[in-house]
Amino acid sequence: MSFTHLDSAGRAHMVDVTAKTPTVRTATARGFVRCGADVVAALRDGTTPKGDVLAVARIAGIQAAKSTATLLPLAHVIGVHRASVELDIVDHGVEIEATVGTADRTGVEMEALTAVSVTALAVVDMVKGIDKSVVIENVRIVAKSGGRSGDWVRPGEEGQS
């Protein structure tokens, strides 16, 4: 078995995608911030001490998608042409979904995962004064399209948003 991010001497390197043809690609990731009832109530009522948690978290996630290559040393710098982050307050916390799109030489799975992760971190940062026990859970890719490997949907995630 060979590893694409290791050279012949076993050293990490960035994969050369120069010769690849740009194609339209998208990826969607999801995650969850588990919160206590007091945090959920404050989110629903808009009474969190630091302000509009969902707006701040959404912008943080979009910015994170565009900054992925500065955070992950072997990720390629790509044109992020779409980045959307949706948050939904539910009974036990906040559901997060991010979709990222590009027309480039490599996929945007890492950008979608980074968007969800940083969105979740922003939620935690905004509510930690109310409840220090909030937990980030189940960050995962749920779908991707385009590229050489084609389309993929995580089993059990079809049609969910």
From TrEMBL:
Q: Which CDD domains match?
A: MoaC_PE
Q: Which residues form the signal peptide?
A: none
Q: Does the keyword NADP apply?
A: no
Which GO terms of the molecular function aspect are on file? Answer: cyclic pyranopterin monophosphate synthase activity
Pathway listed for it is: Cofactor biosynthesis; molybdopterin biosynthesis
Any Pfam family the entry gives: MoaC
Q: Which SUPFAM superfamilies does the annotation name?
A: Molybdenum cofactor biosynthesis protein C, MoaC
* Keywords tagged on the record: Lyase, Molybdenum cofactor biosynthesis
Q: Which reaction does it catalyse?
A: (8S)-3',8-cyclo-7,8-dihydroguanosine 5'-triphosphate = cyclic pyranopterin phosphate + diphosphate
Documented EC number(s):
4.6.1.17
Q: Where is the Molybdopterin cofactor biosynthesis C (MoaC) domain?
A: 14-147
The protein's name in its UniProt record: cyclic pyranopterin monophosphate synthase
Origin organism of this chain? Microbacterium dauci
